[in-house]
Amino acid sequence: MRLYTSEAMRAADARAVGLGYPSLLLMEAAGRAVAEVVARAYPSPKIVVLCGKGNNGGDGLVAARWLRLWGREVEVYAAAGQEGDAGLARSALEAHGLKIQPLEAWAPEPGSLLVDALFGTGLRGRLEGFWASLVAQIRASGLPTVAVDLPSGLPYEPHLEAELTVALAGLKTEHLFYPARSACGRVVLVPIGMPEPALVSPALPELLTPDGMRRLLPRRPGNANKGSVGRVLVVGGQAIYTGAPTLTALAAARSGAGLVTVAYPAGSAVQPPLEAIRKPLQDWSGEGLQGAKAEAVAVGMGTGPEGVAAARAALELGLPTLVDADALQVEVIDAYLQARLPTVITPHPGEAGRLLGRSAAEVAQQPLESAALLARRFPGAAVVLKGGPTVMALSPVPDSAPVLAVNTTGNAAMASGGMGDVLSGIIAAYLAAGLEPWDAARLGVYLHGLSGDLIGKVGMLAHEVAEGLPEAVWRLSKGRVRGFWAQEPEADEAP
Ligand SMILES: NC(=O)C1=CN([C@@H]2O[C@H](COP(=O)(O)OP(=O)(O)OC[C@H]3O[C@@H](n4cnc5c(N)ncnc54)[C@H](OP(=O)(O)O)[C@@H]3O)[C@@H](O)[C@H]2O)[C@@H](O)CC1
Ligand SMILES: Nc1ncnc2c1ncn2[C@@H]1O[C@H](COP(=O)(O)OP(=O)(O)O)[C@@H](O)[C@H]1O
Ligand SMILES: [K+]
Q1: CATH code of residue 416
Q2: Ligand 2, closest atom to CA 390?
Q3: Which part of the chain is the YjeF N-terminal domain (predicted)?
Q4: What value of ipTM does the predicted structure carry?
Q5: Which residues pair with 260 in a beta bridge?
Q6: Which of 230, 283, 299, 327 is the S-S candidate for 235 at Cβ 3.0 to 4.6 Å?
Q7: Does residue 365 sit in the same domain as residue 386?
């Protein structure tokens, strides 16, 4: 599944038409799907559909027709001047005897449900004048609003705030990234019959889906032993950051690593999990790490200023490595790539900013662009730019266009210390199990967020997310995970 910008979705629309798929069929499917979602989610109130002049308005006119046919009380207010498909949708509705009133005549009616079909992907620039005051009036009414495709006005200010957004054909950046995502409320994605070749474009970011991630889960044969399923070496810790490597080790073990070893400065108070092998080191020279039983390394958690020394020591092992936190320095990553080691880097916006010479705020505002920049700067490394949502990027060879992926799990309750250390352990475990860096990174990020979603409460702790990993993996493997865009199943399926 791909993530679209408005332009990319318009291009998909054009490709569908180019393939011979009539655009009116798309509008009919879109409008009917909106009507079905509305009818299910709001079984009783009067429905007021507000329609713009373009195809978003056309979808609203189709939805109004079906809701009316299903016996719902419907009022429609529309801008004048629909043409093309939207014009046909208007006359089809009028043929059923429904009188369409001018938008200017709309006034809030308590108890009604609003369907926002004013603007979708065709909006160019911010709303002003009449449209801005209409948006203000709708928002002030406090009436529950269902947005068709996008809350009108996004991605600019002002815009409507929806309780529910019915995304058509594909998810758009506004449905995933903040602050726009907050205006969408619950998002339900509906297919509208768009031909697959029109939808797929390799340049668009991949969205991590339950089906796609399930296929990446390593299979564990019945005769597995602790030496055959991937062993992880965690290299980190320092006087005051004693918890970080412990959380990484715990998460690696909870992700199925057969054996976890924690190497940390002797004399520091690092307390590896009971099940881990301890490797207290006198210094970061590298000799102490030799002989560690591992197929992958996670380095940098809680090392403080010793991050570079720790990473250089770990480099000597020649193993697939996850580089995190204090080890995330340009010279370290370059050294790993020069050594041609499979490498995953997991910066948060602050660390990414340091690597790119930008501020953390700039990185956080442009996560897709920033992840792509990191991938170009460090070709061959799988880049995990952490955030809500996390974005991943990889330029397989120098100067190649990065492939991008966006996570669809995780929540704001995960904004708490140590969560990143847990992620490192998960990804390292999948590296050790033999996954390529790009697969280990995507699967690890997805499961980390899924475990956080299964807890789902503010106040959750990083170690609880690690403890929840076996359940997350089990649910994923059994097909018991649904994307956030899936409609809730209901006993009464009929509209
Ligand atoms: N993608 C798909 O596969 C399918 C997409 N479908 C649907 O089509 C939607 C996209 O439809 P769209 O392209 O007609 O654009 P839309 O959002 O209705 O807005 C256009 C109108 O806005 C106006 N306008 C623009 N900017 C403005 C401003 N700043 N301030 C004021 N006005 C402004 C512009 O005016 P104009 O510039 O033309 O004078 C025009 O009247 C999409 O979201 C989905 O719902 C489905 O039907 C089927 C398949
Ligand atoms: N609002 C959020 N939505 C989704 N995930 C989040 C959110 N806030 C934090 N996370 C996740 O929690 C982790 C935090 O990592 P990081 O900042 O490195 O934490 P720490 O340094 O404390 O270990 C990342 O994986 C990030 O994606
Ligand atoms: K809309």
Answers
A1: 3.40.1190.20
A2: 27
A3: 9-200
A4: 0.95
A5: 232
A6: 299
A7: yes
